[in-house]
Amino acid sequence: MKFATKAIHAGQEADPTTGAVMTPIYQTSTYQQLEPGNHKGFEYSRGTNPTRKALEDCLAALENGKFGLAFSSGMAATDTVLRLLNPGDEVITGDDLYGGTYRIFMKVYENYGIKFVFVNTSDLNDLQSNINSKTKLIWIESPTNPILKIADLQVIGELAKKNNILYVVDNTFASPYLQNPLDLGADIVMHSATKYLNGHSDVVMGALILNDESLFKRLWFYYNAVGGTPGPQDAFLVLRGLKTLHLRMKAHCENGRKVATYLRKHPKIEKVYWPGFEDHPDFEIAKKQMRDFGGMVSIVLKNADLAETFRIASRFKVFTLAESLGGVESLVNHPASMTHGSIPKEKRERVGVVDNLLRLSVGVEDPDDLIADLEQVFS
Ligand code: P1T
């Protein structure tokens, strides 16, 4: 089946008891057993729930994987992967990352004796030269949050395989509509389903998708044992959101291109980060592994200090100043003080997360209204 058909149908059949076409919200914590162990595949909703199972099967289909696991947040999904590690292990990851991912690495798991090495994931030599016998995990965001750097997912996959290292790709910024890391060698795809997958900014959720059954069993153990799993109402909402993922992503990409192109010519903007520009340093890799370039655009304001940047960020009327991304509505975010505030200033500035950087999540409103909003902000 092709993407749009899977987005609408995968994992979902008419309800066997009533014929309901939409998967019901199975709002139950537990399931009847006729005798101990004799049940219909569902025992207790921390471990399994039919609404969540439909969502997990749909997510797996969209990422071309066999197994899907849904979590109560993207961070809970990340945490579950990190539980596979042991003290003394090393992780290679990117120098540009979501602030919460940096925080769980450095402020939670480093305390358990795990070492995190931050490299420029667009530079394969930097990545390769940091691999050693203790390296047990490579964690990649592509496009990165918020600088929109692109890593060559396939080449990193080959490196990971050769060195027997678990390889995870956080595919939140691209969504499975734009790229499928499992097809490029990733062992696990991670998502903040809060973003494009749900698409309506009304749920916080995470997901892992993978192919290997023994790895799935290890992850499922922590999923059930620790219990960071979402409720059925949220699973229903994300399942509904997925039905329009392909339509929304097309519109995000079109609007993203228009906004990025407009801003690039604007005299008040010093720099525009968007991987669809032919002179973006990673454009050729983006073109090779992505179907389009997405709706995330980051900008550096010309000659603006922190106070002026705050003034500009507060002036938007159609864009809303808020954390998060990937919803139908356009958002503007100030990474240095909001989403990436937990990264030390000197570390974030080294990769470009400066005080005068704003990140736009371009929504699916009429692009003329988005551009008119930018026009009034910068006039
Ligand atoms: O917020 P949560 O669903 O727990 O997902 C965390 C997460 C993981 N990975 C990436 C690439 C992310 O962007 C996020 C969440 N990011 C934001 C809230 C943000 O505004 O960037």
Key descriptive features of the protein:
single chain; 379 residues; alpha/beta; Aspartate Aminotransferase, domain 2; Aspartate Aminotransferase, domain 1; 2 domains; 7-stranded mixed beta sheet; 5-stranded mixed beta sheet; 14 helices; globular; binds ligand P1T
Provide a concise account of the structure shown.
The chain has 379 residues and is α/β, with parallel strands linked by helices. It has helices spanning 3-9, 50-62, 74-82, 99-108, 124-129, 153-162, 175-178, 213-226, 232-242, 245-264, 283-289, 306-313, 345-351, 367-378; strands spanning 67-71, 90-94, 115-119, 135-141, 166-170, 188-192, 206-210, 269-273, 296-301, 320-321, 331-333, 357-361.
Question: Please, could you describe this protein's structure?
Answer:
The protein has helices at 3-9, 50-62, 74-82, 99-108, 124-129, 153-162, 175-178, 213-226, 232-242, 245-264, 283-289, 306-313, 345-351, 367-378, and strands spanning 67-71, 90-94, 115-119, 135-141, 166-170, 188-192, 206-210, 269-273, 296-301, 320-321, 331-333, 357-361. With 379 residues, it is of the alpha/beta class. The chain folds into two domains: 3-242, Type I PLP-dependent aspartate aminotransferase-like (Major domain) (Aspartate Aminotransferase, domain 2); 246-377, Aspartate Aminotransferase, domain 1 (Alpha-Beta Complex), CATH 3.90.1150.10. The strands form two sheets. The chain has a seven-stranded mixed sheet, sandwiched between helices. The chain has a five-stranded mixed sheet with strand order 8-9-12-11-10, covered by helices on one side. α1 (3-9) runs antiparallel to α2, α2 (50-62) packs parallel to α9 (232-242) and α10 packs parallel to α14 (367-378). The radius of gyration is 21 Å and the shape is globular. Bound molecules: ligand P1T. Ligand P1T binds next to α3 and α4.
